[in-house]
Model the fold of this input.
Amino acid sequence: QLQLVESGGGLVQPGGSLRLSCVVSGFRSDHYAIGWFRQAPGKGREGVLCISSTGGTTNYADSVKGRFTISRDNAKKTVYLQMNSLKPEDTAVYSCAARLWCSAGTNEYDYWGQGTQVTVSS
Done:
C-alpha cells in the first residue's frame, strides 16, 4: 500500500514557473514508477510525464515538451514536476500516481494522490 501526497500548486502568471512535489510513502515506494497527470476543467485526465524506478522518463503530452521535466529523489521519497514557461492552458488539477511501470493509461495506476490545483492567469 502506498500513499501519495502532492504539494506546490498555486496561482502563477503566464511565463512563470512552479515545482510540484509528490511524496510517496509505503513499502518499497522506490520500486514504483510515478506519473504526473492533469485534468483541466471540463476535460478528461491526461498523462503528462512519468519517471521509472530507475530514473527513465517518458513524456505523454506534446504540449509540455521543452517546458516540463520530471525527476525523483528516492532518499527523500519525492518526485518532482518542474514546470516552466507556464501557459493559461496548463491550468488544471495535477495528480501523481504510482504503478510498477510507466504507462499513459490513467486506469492502469494503482495508487493516486489527492491532487493540487495549478492556475495560470494574469
About this structure: The mean pLDDT is 96. The radius of gyration is 13 Å. The first strand starts at residue 2 and ends at 7. The chain is about 0% helix and 50% strand.
